[in-house]
Every structure is written in C-alpha cells, then in structure tokens.
C-alpha cells in the first residue's frame, strides 16, 4: 500500500470512528462527564461506594393532622423531636425481576434499600416521599414502618430529573405524618437533624445532627433521564448509603429537605445534600394529582460538545467551543418535524447560549411551557442556521 492509499485508509477509519462515537452516544441521553460520580444512596451500592470517589445519591390517626414534632415535645428538645419524627420515617425495599442464569426462570430479588417520609394522608391512602433512585426499576416496593410492620407500596409517580418519587400505602398504617416546613427560611448555621436507614433496615431510623452548611447550592447530577441541575441544601449532618429519601428536619421538627446526595471521596467529610421543601413540594403535589410531572419536550437525546473529541467534528467552526450535540431523534417529536438531525450542534435557545445539556434543560424547564414556540441556533457542520419549533409535552411519550 503506497503513502496516498495509507492516508485515505486512515481518513476512512477516523470517519468511521466518528460515526461510531455519535451512534454510541445516541443509545441514550448522556450528560456531561463529571469528576465526581453520582451513585444512589442505597445499601445495594455499599461496596461500590467504598472504591468510588464521587457525589453519592443517596404521622397520625385517620382523622389526625400532620404532627409537628416540636409541638408534641413542649420543650422542643432534640429527643422529643426525634421521638415523634422517627415514627414518620419508613424503610423502602426495592425488589426487581431478575433472571436465573442457570434455569432461565425470572424471580424477584432485593436490589436495594432506602428511606422515605410519610407526609400526607388523604382518604384511604397515605403518601410517602422518597428519591426516584430508591424505587427506580422496582417491580415490587415493600415499606417497613417504625413499629416493624411491613406493607406493599404502590408507586404513584416519579420524576428522574429532580430525583423525586411518591409511593402510597393503606392509610391504616399511617399513624404519624411529618409536617412539611418552609425551607426558604433556612439560614447557614441553623441546626438540622437527618433521619434515615443507613446501610439498610438493621440500622433503621438512625439520627444524625448537624447544621445547614449552605442554602441554594446548585449541583449537576447525572440521572436516568440525563444530566440535571438540582437546587439543594448543603449540610454536614452525616448521610450514608440507605439515607436516600430520608428526612432533613429543622429545629421546629418540620420536614425541610429530602436527603439525597453526598460527596464521597478520600479526604472529604461532611458534604451532604438534601432537596429543599420549596423544590419538592410542587413536584410531589403534581405527582399525586396527575401521576407525573409535565415538562416541555423537544424530542432529542444529547451530549455535551465538550465530551466529543474535536477531531470528530472537523467541519465545525473553531469559534464554536460550547453547545450540545444531538445524539438521536424521536421521530414523532417536534424536533424531527422541524428537520433537526443527529449530529447537529445546538448553541443557543431563543438567543441564550447553550453550553451543556443541563443548560438546555434549565432554559426549557424554568421559563417555557408546553405550546411555546422556540428558536434554536444550530450548526450542521460549518453551516449555521435557525430552526423554529413548538414545544410539546413529555407526557406524550409515556
């Protein structure tokens, strides 16, 4: 093979690798690569967490009202708050269908354990808030109550992007509910209590105490629906595998956060995160009402431009340094109808720069609604264009 033939062969191989990369990305919605990895805070991942650095994910009678733990304890002391609040904390066991490799027979096996909080009772049912990653892919949900009773839980709905889910059980099991407080009033330095089931149900309703380290933190978290930005409370109260879905409680004994994440890496301590009540309350209310969370939908899978080697995008102008690459298209979506193609690079939405998939989702979900018309600035190779489309609902794909 002469020199010219070898050069042609190398170019062909490089182009093939480029197509293969985009096709691999197109297999799902992939977020930006993070230095810190997100893992569910369930005991199923206990061994993984020991070897992995990263961010880890982690009460009434039928006619009664939610109990504010500090009003039950006249002194408002920690022991009184804990005694009453703990009765609203449940264990959640996620069972999944698994096939026996030797017999081929499918059977349920426990895939993980997390926590949940009883916070509402309505009619014949009581409602539990937890994390999506605690119940994700479950074929059967078992709920363990403070008095040792167990009952079957029914998933009402879940929202992977906010990592929230709602499970319901028979109201007769809900002797205690935890009152939801106002997280917007929290201040750095305020005392908080975390209650959950670290490392499984053997250590159920473990109590840890700390302070609010910061409010309104924003962290990027890969989820099953793509990379998401969560607004969270930072706390130094100990949060361990199994604490996910458990309660973060203020000094009044009110639920102000759902414990979800922590930084887990050598030399780092006391960096836990909870979804604040001002964020989870509207989401869980919508889930209880409709079984889902409706959001604007374009119809694309995407990855960050920064995650694709530049030599695979040689036609893209050098000045384009940030954006999202369209990895795949829902052929029934507004994106397909507007003519968007896999491989296109989106750099702006309505004139606002788009640097990552999280940027695009933030712009879609914070200021736009189903039915709005949007303009996307797109590069197709070296060609720059504007594509207009009307946002549809993600409910259409369910």
UniProtKB/TrEMBL annotation:
Keyword NAD: no
UniProt-listed Gene3D superfamilies: 2.30.42.10, Trypsin-like serine proteases
SMART domains documented for this protein: PDZ
One function term, GO molecular function aspect: serine-type endopeptidase activity
Keyword check for Transmembrane helix: yes
Gene Ontology biological process terms from the UniProt entry: proteolysis
Domain (PDZ) ranges: 287-354
Keywords: Hydrolase, Membrane, Protease, Serine protease, Transmembrane, Transmembrane helix
TM annotation in the entry: 21-39
InterPro entries for this protein: Chloro_Bact_Ser_Proteases (IPR051201), PDZ (IPR001478), PDZ_sf (IPR036034), Peptidase_S1_PA (IPR009003), Peptidase_S1_PA_chymotrypsin (IPR043504), Peptidase_S1C (IPR001940)
UniProt xrefs under Pfam families: PDZ_2, Trypsin_2
Similarity field: Belongs to the peptidase S1C family.
Protein name: PDZ domain-containing protein
Source organism of the structure: Bacillus salacetis
